[in-house]
Amino acid sequence: xxxxxxxxxxxxxxxxxxxxxxxxxxxxxxxxxxxxxxxxxxxxxxxxxxxxxxxxxxxxxxxxxxxxxxxxxxxxxxxxxxxxxxxxxxxxxxxxxx
Length: 98
Fold this sequence. Notes:
Elements: H1 4-11, H2 14-23, E1 29-30, H3 31-38, H4 42-54, E2 58-63, E3 66-71, H5 77-89
Antiparallel strand pairs: 1-3, 2-3
C-alpha cells in the first residue's frame, strides 16, 4: 500500500488531479479523451498517468494503439475517502459505483 505522502504527491500536480476528476465517474477513459479534455500532449499525458498508476490510483488496459485508464478497483476505503474529500473540495460529486 502506498503512503499518504506518495498519494498526495501524485495528486498535487493540476493535470493529474484533473485526470482523477475525469476518471472518478467510474468509467474507463481512453488516453485520447484525457488528452482532449485536459489539453495535454500524448507524451505529457502518458507521463502523468504513469505517476498515477505508480501511486496505485489507476489501472490501464491497452486497446489497439490506445491505452484506457480507470480508477483502481483495489483502493482501500481510506484512500477512497481521501480522494472523495479532495474532489469534494474542488466541487466534484461523489464517485459513481463501478
